[in-house]
Design goal:
The chain is α+β, with helices and mostly antiparallel strands. Among the domains are: 201 residues, Multidrug efflux transporter AcrB transmembrane fold, CATH 1.20.1640.10; 114 residues, Alpha-Beta Plaits; 110 residues, 2-Layer Sandwich (Alpha-Beta Plaits). 61% of the residues lie in helices and 8% in strands. It is built from 27 helices and ten strands.
Length: 770
């Protein structure tokens, strides 16, 4: 029977035979995706998509009524000695009001010197707020607020004895987005040279090191264009696009690294360039496709989160992973076929001897050995320590599972005390963003004024006596209920059937005091006042409500997302390796490494063990979105190494090696590639850890720890120990999944000549390795 080629092998062979066509097609694809994406533009999520629960319902009511809520802003004026009654202070207030109105970007300006604005004077009368709205909606106001910021800054310069600062939804988001863009850009710019250096050390040759970086860069660029198209369905915010870039660099480099290492290994065995490409395509190319598919399946679980931020993040990363896989199995084989031994151009002198001993590919310009591939080629050398550890693991696998499994379990235990919360403005240190200092000063003088709750009321009789009476009762309740305070504002808009009532909440907006105040507002005040209006639809929104509701929703969604990822990862591994045992081992080991990463994150960030080292202040909780983010991304990304190693083990067994020998050669034979890929992934994850955002630090540390555990403890100890304990049972294939065996493409004669060949189970299928 004729053996069927895998998709990766067929693509690799075609690309190697049509080299320039493959390269031109890839470049055309990248350019076309970029141009089309730029023309279409990336669609951002709506305010309703960014939250959940009652806060989302409030946004949906506003959206249906065509009520584009303007961004609310304040100008904070404060003096150490003067009061609002002093002429100099009053003059600064008057100049501020005039500057705001003259900017042409504001409306509803309320001065603290007017009767309506008198509540916006602090108790000591040394601080006051000028309140106003932007003319544009909250979503777009951040792009138009800079002229207003400039006008306020000029007032401040004209009154040096006073503090004159602006804060609000638009100004904070403008500063936050600018800071986020700068940080991510710096991170991306740092990740490329760091990755190149790591690859230089791994390959010992400049061209071989540069190739994965170039492929990853073009994949990220193309994915950015494609994302503009997919974002019309799954809207994407800035977090999604930034994470896409960093993840794209990591997986793009990893996939290329696996492929190039196998190509060089096949050349060292004596294969001609075309045959080496074909062998790499059938082995590493196949592993890249399986790994990419598993990552995509894991990321798809985020679509079940029901949160626009995660949905956009899932769409963005799925696009970049799929693009990276496409580049690895199409244009990379063509480039390797074109370069041949020139892939080793630019060898580093000091690394030449070491890399040649590990990966003895002929130097550029020299011919490959003409002898046929040996029956059992020696695997690339790895460290003596790792080899000794592996031999000990295979000798006493049960001891290895108990000891090292116990260590990971000990790291996992703190995860059971994981507590999530909303970091809010605490996600950034005050020194990272000047607006945060303004926010803190406003909170001290006017607790809750910077982030009021917004009660949305939909009624056909907003001007009726019943509604007016309810509003009066609401104002009275706000003044007499602990945790709530004025001023209470009332504003109608849209089609005339919707009103927004704002009221201040105690606390910082996301702390326990604010959460308690929100619950009081929702459970007691609103039902007894605005909730009594007949036929009215009332929902409480705002910053605090959005944080609380999104956190609660994500906690509820974690179970179904995790269930989806576990089930479909098991199915992908089952159909890829056609072994229930391997699929089960995959799930158990991945859960163990992710749990251990959770435990470390809890110790470092929740208990504050790493405050000094990582330069942060613990909030006593983990950002509510981080556990779900880590679970999905780690479960997907850890498959890179797992699939690569298990594929090589399977390949050795398919050549006729005993299970023990196949495990040993599979682990040692992939050591160099896995180590290089893991270092790249850790370096990229560490970039997250350097960002000032606390939640990003949590993500970076979690990813770094999990990748390190996957590449060391899991790969060298627990995986081979588990497979050793299972023995030949790992090759058992259910009748439904059986298919005819196929010889290893690179060395078909190996099975007949290997002295350690074990008897084959005719029912066992063959899966090419990495």
């Amino acid at each position: 029977m004729k053996n069927r080629r895998s998709l990766a092998e067929a693509a690799g062979r075609w690309s190697a035979s049509h080299r320039w066509a493959a390269v031109l097609l890839w470049l055309t694809f990248v350019v076309a995706a970029t141009v089309i994406g730029s023309a279409v533009g990336t669609a951002a999520p709506t305010p309703a998509e960014l939250t959940n629960g009652e806060a989302r319902r409030a946004e949906e009511i506003l959206d249906r009524a065509g009520f584009e809520l303007p961004a609310h802003e304040v100008v904070f004026l404060q003096s150490e000695a003067a009061t609002v009654d002093d002429p100099a202070f009053r003059a600064a207030v008057t100049d501020t009001v005039r500057a705001l109105r003259d900017s042409g970007r504001t409306q509803n300006v309320v001065s603290p010197l007017d009767p309506a604005g008198r509540p916006a004077v602090s108790a000591d009368r040394r601080a006051a707020l000028v309140q106003f709205d932007m003319r544009s909606a909250t979503v777009t106001a951040k792009e138009e607020v800079q002229p207003v910021l400039d006008a306020v800054a000029r007032v401040g310069k004209a009154h040096p004895g006073l503090r004159v600062e602006q804060f609000g939804e638009a100004s904070f988001q403008h500063g936050y987005d600018t800071k986020l863009h700068e940080d991510y850009t710096e991170a991306e710019n740092l990740s490329f040279p760091v990755t190149l250096v790591i690859l230089l050390l791994a390959f010992g040759a400049f061209v071989a090191a540069l190739l994965p970086v170039v492929l990853a860069l073009t994949a990220v660029v193309a994915a950015g264009g494609l994302l503009a198209l997919t974002s019309q369905i799954a809207h994407v915010d800035q977090n999604g696009t930034s994470v896409m870039s960093l993840i794209g660099i990591a997986v793009g480099v990893d996939y290329s690294l696996f492929y190039i290492r196998r190509f060089r290994e096949e050349r060292a065995r004596g294969q001609e360039a075309q045959a080496a490409v074909a062998a790499a395509a059938a082995t590493s190319g196949h592993s890249v496709v399986v790994s990419g598919l598993t990552v995509i399946v894991s990321l798809a679980g985020l679509f079940l989160s029901g949160n626009g931020i995660f949905i956009g993040m899932a769409g963005a990363t799925i696009v970049v992973v799929a693009t990276a896989v496409l580049g690895s199995v199409t244009v990379l084989p063509a480039l390797l076929s074109l370069l041949g031994d020139r892939v080793n151009t630019g060898r580093l002198p000091r690394l030449r001897r070491r890399t040649e001993s590990q990966d003895p590919t002929p130097a550029a310009g020299t011919a490959a050995p003409a002898a046929p591939a040996p029956a059992a080629p020696a695997p690339p050398r790895t460290g003596r320590g790792w080899n000794a550890l592996l031999r000990g693991v295979l000798k006493r696998p049960l001891v290895a599972v108990v000891v090292f499994g116990g260590l990971l379990t000990a790291l996992l235990l703190p995860a059971f005390s994981l507590h999530t919360g909303e970091p809010g403005v605490s996600d950034l240190p005050t020194r990272a963003l000047p607006a945060l200092g303004t926010y803190e000063r406003i909170q001290q003088a006017f607790p809750g004024s910077a982030t009021p709750a917004k009660v949305v009321v939909h009624s056909t009789d907003l001007d009726g006596p019943e509604t007016r009476a309810a509003l009066d009762r609401f104002r009275a309740a706000a003044e007499n209920t602990p945790g709530l305070h004025g001023p209470v504002t009332f504003r109608t808009g849209g089609d005339g059937t919707v009103a927004i009532v704002t009221v201040g909440l105690a606390g910082t907006g996301t702390d326990e005091a604010s959460v308690r105040a929100l619950h009081t507002l929702r459970a007691t005040v609103v039902p007894a006042t605005l909730g009594t209006v007949r036929g009215a639809d009332v929902a409480v929104g705002g910053t605090t409500a959005a944080s609380v509701d999104s956190g609660d929703h994500l906690s509820d969604a974690t179970g179904r997302v995790a269930g989806f990822v576990l089930v479909f990862t098991f199915l992908v591994m089952l159909f890829s390796f056609r072994s229930p045992a391997i699929a089960a081992v995959t799930l158990v080991l991945n859960l163990l490494s992710v749990g251990a990463a959770y435990g470390v994150v809890v110790l470092v960030f929740q208990h504050g063990w790493g405050e000094g080292l990582l330069d942060f202040t613990s909030t006593g909780a983990i950002a509510s979105w981080v556990p779900l983010f880590l679970f999905v991304f780690l479960f997907g990304l850890s498959m890179d190494y797992h699939v690569f190693v298990v594929s090589r083990i399977r390949e050795g067994h398919d050549r006729g090696l005993s299970t023990d020998r196949a495990i040993e050669e599979g682990v040692t034979g992939t050591a160099g590639a896995v180590t290089g890929a893991a270092v790249v992934m850790v370096a990229v994850a560490a970039v997250f850890g350097t960002l000032p955002q606390l939640s990003m630090k949590e993500s970076g540390v979690g990813m770094s720890v999990a990748v390190l555990l996957d590449a060391t403890v899991i790969r060298v100890v627990l995986l081979p120990a588990a497979l050793k304990l299972l023995g030949d049972r790992i090759w058992h294939t259910p009748r439904l999944l059986r298919r005819p065996p196929a010889p290893h493409p690179a060395a078909p004669e190996t099975a007949a000549t290997d002295p350690e060949r074990s008897a084959r189970d005719d029912r066992r299928p063959v899966t090419t390795g990495a």
